[in-house]
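Thread amino acids onto this structure.
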């Protein structure tokens, strides 16, 4: 009961924030509660009867978390999870307030949380996760972190808190190094990609055409084949044909991470058929390859956050995609880090927008991409792009490629809400896949 006053105040702040700004203000209640009751977040997260699972890493954590939650719920486990936009301390607390009773308790057996690597490291010492899942360490996050070793250190701090298992990407050198420094009772469990599966090929960036021929460890869960939005994944020697929420090898790797973690959590209770069905039925996380209807137009939203995801998403677009808009915002502090991406296959981009429109337009032009128009005002660009006649090919789908800042602004301008929040948007209808990360 000692947290009841803070929880009641936080819920009142949440209600007031929604009146003032419908669909916004989600972090404010968490900020208030964290100030009033600094111990509440850790207390709540450590209280689930079946433990806490943390998913972190540079990329793929939102989709991996949603896949894992879908699989575990299909096995009958009551899960508390956070939307992908609430992966820092105040967002996590706000997510708890959405479901907590007046005493701050959550009616769930297991917590499965996506955590930002930086904020996760800050609160790691107060948490007692049973399982930690680490997706990767991107070498190009210097616009946010100083170097990969900094990210590796933050993820190691989170991983060391695991009591049962740490699920790791066997094809990531930073995670291989991280695992060698783990101590305690937690077992290392590995997922990876079979040699011969194309990973990425951005110009001059050192990513391989295929996964490594041999890893220093043996992965128990392996992506064997990827064909668009379908993949074959071997789990403990059993081949599983899995339908993905969107196209691309990156989604297959996310699925491998989720299946590996689910098998560890469920043990002998893991049922492959249930897992396959659950992943095949899930919708993409908002913006990660989501196709929806806006103002009577079908639109595919493709989020890119670093050169690897940009390249994989460009490679995954169907040849001859007719109408493309690219919007890069203020979250890309140094646009030069996108230059290693080979964007030539885009061919033609109808509108380039966002606060970094001029920079990304220069990169596209360098790759020989034809640009119809540069419009820095994102709202105007979106309105005009949607007003273009419906594409004659590709099922009439328009494609918007954006960075995180432009994604948030697009969502706000179009009145969309995240399907990962469990809510439909004012302009949304269905999600049918695409190419996001």
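Threaded sequence (437 positions):
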């Amino acid at each position: 009961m000692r947290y009841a006053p803070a929880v009641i105040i936080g819920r009142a702040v949440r209600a007031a924030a929604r009146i003032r700004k419908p669909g916004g203000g989600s972090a404010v209640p968490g900020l208030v509660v964290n100030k009033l009751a600094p111990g509440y977040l850790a207390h709540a997260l450590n209280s689930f009867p079946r433990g806490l699972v943390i998913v972190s890493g540079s990329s793929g954590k939102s989709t991996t978390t949603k896949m894992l939650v879908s699989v575990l719920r299909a096995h009958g486990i009551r899960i508390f999870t956070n939307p992908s936009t609430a992966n820092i301390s105040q967002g996590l607390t706000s997510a708890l307030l959405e479901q907590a009773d007046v005493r701050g308790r959550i009616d769930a057996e297991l917590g499965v949380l996506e955590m930002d690597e930086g904020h996760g490291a800050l609160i790691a010492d107060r948490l007692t996760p049973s399982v930690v899942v680490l997706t990767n360490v991107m070498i190009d996050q210097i616009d946010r972190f100083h170097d990969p070793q900094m990210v590796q250190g933050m993820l190691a701090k989170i991983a060391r808190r695991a009591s049962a298992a740490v699920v790791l990407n066997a094809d990531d050198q930073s995670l291989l190094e991280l695992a060698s420094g783990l101590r305690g009772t937690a077992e290392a469990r590995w997922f990876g990609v079979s040699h011969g599966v194309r990973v990425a090929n951005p110009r001059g960036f050192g990513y391989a055409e295929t996964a490594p021929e041999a890893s220093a460890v043996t992965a128990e869960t392996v992506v064997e084949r990827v064909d668009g939005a379908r993949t074959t994944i071997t789990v403990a020697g059993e081949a599983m044909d899995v339908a993905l929420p969107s196209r691309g090898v990156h989604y297959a790797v996310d699925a491998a991470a989720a299946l590996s973690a689910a098998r560890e959590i469920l043990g002998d209770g893991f049922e492959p058929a249930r897992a396959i069905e659950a992943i095949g039925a899930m919708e993409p996380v908002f913006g990660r390859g989501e196709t929806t209807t806006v103002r009577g137009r079908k639109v595919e939203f493709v989020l890119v956050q670093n050169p690897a995801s940009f390249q994989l998403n460009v490679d995954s677009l169907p040849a001859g995609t007719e109408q493309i808009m690219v919007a890069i915002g203020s979250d890309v502090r140094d646009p030069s880090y996108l230059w290693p991406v080979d964007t030539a296959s885009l061919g033609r981009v109808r509108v380039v927008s966002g606060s970094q429109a001029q920079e990304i337009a220069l990169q596209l032009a360098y790759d020989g991409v034809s640009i119809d128009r540069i419009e820095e005002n994102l709202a105007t660009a979106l309105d005009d792009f949607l007003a273009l006649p419906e594409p004659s090919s590709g099922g009439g789908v328009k494609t918007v490629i954006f960075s995180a800042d432009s994604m948030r602004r697009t969502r706000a301008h179009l009145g969309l809400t995240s399907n990962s929040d469990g809510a439909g948007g004012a302009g949304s209808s269905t999600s049918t896949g695409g190419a996001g990360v």
